[in-house]
Fold:
Amino acid sequence: MKLWIKYLIAIALGIGAAFILPADSPAVSSLIASFSEFSVRFGRYTLLPLLFFGVSSAVFRLRSTKNLQKTAVWTLMTILGTTLILALLGLVSILLVKLPRIPITGEKMSSLPSIDIKSLVMQLFPYSGFEALQQGAFLLPCFIFAGFAGAGCTTDQNASKPVISFFESAAKLCYSIMSFFIEWLCVGMIAVSAWWMISARQVFASGIYTPLFIMLSVDFVLVIGLIYPLIVHFLCNDQHPYHVVYACITPVITAFFSGDSNLSLPVNLRHARESLGVHQPSSDVTVPLFSIFARGGSALVTTICFVMILRSYSSLGFAFFDILWIFGASVAISLVLSSLPSGGTFVALTILCTMYSRGFEAGYLLLRPAAPVFCSFAAAFDAVSAIFGSYVVAVKTKQFEHVELKHYI
Structure:
């Protein structure tokens, strides 16, 4: 049975369970929440070992074959390109379509979440390189440490043969273990989707945020059904780009219902390799980088939500400078959400409100009840960007091989 069918069945069972089980009972809700958290931990269990050994061996191979620079340039351009495209789509959508105002509440500001840039920079190079392997959420320190390890092996390839052989063997072992965990994660997705439905049920029932969710759904269909396939068609000269959409199914539903980019990363990695035929050196570098930096979905959702907040408070229009500021700030904030694999979009919205000030500092409170749902949309956009982006980089660097559709996992 295809992996995406297993996941869809699990999600259908989870959503059904959310309506059948007495979710109003604190004991039942607590039990489902615990199972959901356990499932997320289960799915992310092999991520750091796989990331370290996979990136180390991948960087070694890329540098040995002189493909590292080309892969890095294409990855950087694709990350920036997808982020700008999604942010622009969100801005155009909310400017063209005026959504209904959200009722103003009397809720007061609580402690504001924030992103400490200085702390993030310091974490990139901890006092010991081995501390980088302890960051379960912030993956960039581990990626950097693994990159240096792989690059260092190329300085004296004869002396480093035992080391690189160990890295490659360990990477294959970790990938096999990760594949096993991904197969069984479908069982955990029952609890994940059930908890998501329980958390979002009241939001859907209120109807206040329905226009917002419809806009996000339409934008998602445009991205996955038109914009990204056209980019692949013209940039990669691919006459049938919708095979990439088919490979997106499992990563998208995993990202949407979990809202966790670190959980969808191993699913993305497996589909990039086994469905799209991306070679290991390319996939093991590009997919994590997209998961860490390519948060265009967060930029899109943040832009739409922020303009919606401003319109709820005031009927005044926007000057060109305000539009430019919203676009630039959303893109900039999305690029520093790497330490927040889940919930980063809501944090970005609070930061945007605080930076804009002018009496809108507490505007994020209007959308706080809907945060679990719009964060799910952002995670789904980011998962699509990771799959399409890794495929584009692999094609442009000639690091892929064709896989027949019937062999997709």
The chain has a mean pLDDT of 88. The first helix runs from residue 3 to 20. The two ends are 8 Å apart (CA to CA).
